[in-house]
Structure formats: structure tokens, C-alpha cells
Write a structure and sequence with these properties.
Layout lengths: L1 H12 L5 E3 L13 H10 L2 E5 L8 H11 L3 E5 L5 E2 L2 E2 L13 E4 L6 H10 L6 E4 L6 H7 L5 E3 L4 H9 L1
InterPro entries: CoA-bd, NAD(P)-bd_dom_sf
Protein name: Succinyl-coa synthetase, alpha subunit-related
């Protein structure tokens, strides 16, 4: 019921399947500040690729990655230089992941987001959510993903939103 509601809601609300959740309205971009839809979508998601993953204590990415693991997500650290993060094997790119993921969570500066959006667009099975963490937004990345059935979240923390909506 939840899954079908969310798919139907997204299909009815946004032609092309693209949904944008963010803090500011951008001309030409559909924007939805709807906690019900985001909550339903987050309930369905179980796997996260954390791009820019580092296990540096006290860093935002470290806290979010550990929270996601404790919350029951299957976490795939993505970092081109690291072999392991949080005791998990790290992958150098999204293309190297063992299978599709539900969420791509970016801890990269905005200028790197378009390259990751192109990487997501090239995947055989795209994620359901392309998430740019707090302080990160890229209109160019959003433009790349607009034709795909992907929800784009910008300038929000996945940990904070998950805890707020599902805890």
C-alpha cells in the first residue's frame, strides 16, 4: 500500500517522475515540501551509497554514515582513494557497486555534483533518490536528472530528515 501510494503520488504530481525537495524554489524545477511523500519514500529505501565517505571521527559524513548503518540501511561507502570505511569495503565509483541502491547520498562540493549526476544517469538501474547533503545544491546536477524517475533532495541532511520523519 505504501509503495503504490508513493509511486502514484509522484506520478500524478510530477510528469516525467522527477521530484525535487529542497529549501529554495528554483525557476523551472518542480518543488515539493511534502513530508508525507518524503516519509513514504524513505520508508521504502533500504540501501545507500555514501559518496565522499570517510571515517574521520567528528566529520558530518562519519556521523551520517554510522547513523544510517545503525538505522538498518545497507551502506556502500564510495571514495576513490579508500579501501575501507566504517569497516566496510569502499567502492571507487557508483558503477562499481555490487548492485542498484535506493539512495545516492552526496558529501561532495556542489561543483562535483554534476559529474555524479551524470554517473547516476549512466547506471542501468538509477537510485530512487539523489540526495545532496546540507549546504549542497547544484542546479546543473538537477538539470541532468530531470528526465529520470528520480527524487532529488538538496540542502538537507539525510540523517536529520530520516530521524525527523521516521523516528
Amino acid at each position: 500500500m505504501k509503495a503504490s501510494f508513493c509511486r502514484a503520488f509522484r506520478a500524478a504530481a510530477f510528469s516525467g517522475g522527477y521530484t525535487f525537495f529542497g529549501r529554495t524554489k528554483t525557476q523551472g524545477t518542480a518543488m515539493l515540501e511534502n513530508d508525507i511523500a518524503l516519509r513514504a519514500l524513505l520508508r521504502e529505501c533500504r540501501s545507500v551509497a555514501v559518496v565522499g565517505a570517510k571515517d574521520r571521527p567528528g566529520s558530518p559524513v562519519d556521523g551520517v554514515g554510522r547513523y544510517l548503518m545503525q538505522a538498518g540501511f545497507t551502506v556502500y561507502p564510495v571514495h576513490p582513494m579508500r579501501k575501507t570505511v566504517w569497516g566496510l569495503a569502499a567502492f571507487s565509483s557508483l558503477a562499481e557497486l555490487p548492485g542498484p541502491v535506493d539512495i545516492v547520498d552526496l558529501f561532495r562540493a556542489p561543483e562535483h555534483c554534476p559529474a555524479h549526476a551524470r554517473e547516476v544517469a549512466a547506471l542501468a538501474i538509477p537510485p530512487r533518490i539523489f540526495w545532496m547533503q546540507s549546504g549542497i545544491d547544484s542546479p546543473e546536477a538537477r538539470a541532468i536528472l530531470v528526465a529520470l524517475p528520480i527524487t532529488v533532495v538538496a540542502d538537507r541532511c539525510l540523517m536529520v530528515e530520516h530521524h525527523r520523519l521516521l523516528a
